[in-house]
Amino acid sequence: MTRGSARRLVVLGAVLLLLLLGGAGPASAHAVLRSSDPADGTVLKAAPASVTLTFSESVGLLDDSFRLFGPDGRRVHTGEARHAPGHSDTAEVAFPAGLGQGTFTVAWRVVSADSHPVSGAFTFSVGKPSPTSAAVDTGPDENPATGALWDLARYAAYGAAALLIGTAAFVLLCRPPDPGPLRRPLAAGWWTLLASTVVLLALRAPYETGAGPASALDPAALARTLTGRPGLVLLARLALLAPVAAFLVRLSRRGPSRTTPATGAALALALALTWAASEHASAGIQVPSAMASSVLHLLAMAVWLGGLTALLTTLQRATADPDPESSSGDDPRLTATVARFSRIAFLAVTVLVVTGVYQSWRGLGSWTALTDTTYGRLLLAKLAAVVLLLAAAGGSRRWTARLVTAAGRAGSAGSAGTAATGSEAVQERTPEPVGGPSYPAARTTAPQTVSTSAPLSGPPAGAAFGTSSPCPSPAPGGCLRALRRSVLAEVAVAVAVLVVSTVLSGTLPGRAAAEAAGTAPAAGIPGASVTTIPFDTGTPGGRGTVQITLEPGRVGQNAVEAVVFGPDGGLSTVPELRLSLSLPAQKIGPIDARLTDRGGYWGTDSLNLPIPGAWTAKATVRVSELDQASGSRTVRILR
């Protein structure tokens, strides 16, 4: 590959990375809030002694997980956040005595079991809602600088793991004739993984709290990180890099023939576990199966995508001669290396498909989540990229088959074609190191003949090409150059697949999104029917919402509380608010609720609804002497 081609590959990969990084939103968490006590929008007669939040899975607490703000917008000091006894999915904090009356805001932030922070806020009122709403700064969901650095480190870690594991597997399993050029990718993968892990470990505390990168220098923050599961997982990954370095040094000095693949496999498995233990697989349903699937998925991805880079480097070395008629592809060892990788890549793709289907089912939960959730849409994008990658891989496998056939027809030493069985057998010369542990092995070693079968997809190699050479030139070197171009395209698409996979690992799964929609705590009094009706007068400041609470929301006498919120989401006072309900199916109504102004909210205790069903609630809001607007929503009244 020429320097120009290499530069184009780097630029293409960088553009894809920047495009996907720029289009990716903040990472969403797996945990969702099931309920809170007091509930959002509740009006209490007396101040509560504490607040309790229940989530869909276990959560980790921060030093500042709960913040309470009074009606004037000032923070009220609370007790220390803690888990409810025996319930890691429930968090609570004690309130001080004498809160007073008005509307209070609770801002919360916890860490999901899959290591992503999740935050939110809700309000409750004591006595009656405040007539005006003070601006409350509940803090950012994520610091932009911290989030950008965190995402960049995550992408780098994924790419480095694929390069490191895939290149090492290529050297050990495919045994290239000259592994020397692969030392640089191995070193680059190791150093990048080391640097990205250190950055992730340092940024873990500010990422969890939503603080700026400068807070990473706080020793107390780092100490807190090292006591939590995500921090311990990153620390374990950092510790694993020491034996990985020792293994790579041994591989470099002694060569693949004298290095135990089992050691490399164990180290790769341990590294993959550090990702599975800190992402979606570690939470939700079927955790043991999900962890095993996640590990296999990551390893298969690394062997395939990282191996492609190693193969491209090997082919670049083999086709460096600019002479188009060069016989650089005549080396039977190189032909055997390509054939071996073809078989290994096919196995890796099979593992990717099986584990990917399982993980997609586990993350989605339903077919509608494919189009209705961000996770599903990203999954469709990844599927499209994988299909394109498989098409490119199919082209590479066809060129591999042609290369093996061309090598056999050229009469290369140690190779033969077996057209009668429709498969290719390549006899290679496997060097036996002599005279010291130099790596790669010397060319003067004694040959050992090994038969290597290379079952490839499609028709038997050369079967569709008659008696003519299937390569662009008579020499196998022509096939090598064509294969290199095909692998180059495969690597380019692989970059996109890797980036989308990284984005997907930090996105709220479709199953969790559906659960969040189905279990979101209803605002208002527990057991009541709560409805939000939007309105818009078409004038500046003339839009907002009306929150209608019917207690108990059943047939018979109901109490009504209606609160008006302005365009900024704060409580708003209006000169008039009318509410009527009708039941179109039974031709009942409209029934005027006859709301009265109760100082900050509108209400009545005498609304009688005689029949259950889907009632239509119509709210008319007058915001000035001349401007008013109406809106309606369906309210289900139970028996």
From TrEMBL:
Keyword Acyltransferase recorded: no
For region Disordered, the annotated ranges are 412-470
Where would you find this protein in the cell?
Cell membrane; Periplasm
Q: Pinpoint the Copper resistance protein D domain residues.
A: 336-411
The domain of life for this entry's organism is Bacteria
- Single GO BP term: copper ion transport
Q: Which GO terms describe its cellular component?
A: periplasmic space; plasma membrane
Keyword Transmembrane helix applies:
yes
Q: Which UniProt keywords apply?
A: Cell membrane, Copper, Membrane, Metal-binding, Periplasm, Signal, Transmembrane, Transmembrane helix
Task: Tell me where the signal peptide lies.
Answer: 1-29
Q: Where is the composition biased (Low complexity)?
A: 412-425, 451-470
Please give the family membership noted in the entry.
Answer: Belongs to the CopC family.
- Please state what the protein is called: Protein YobA
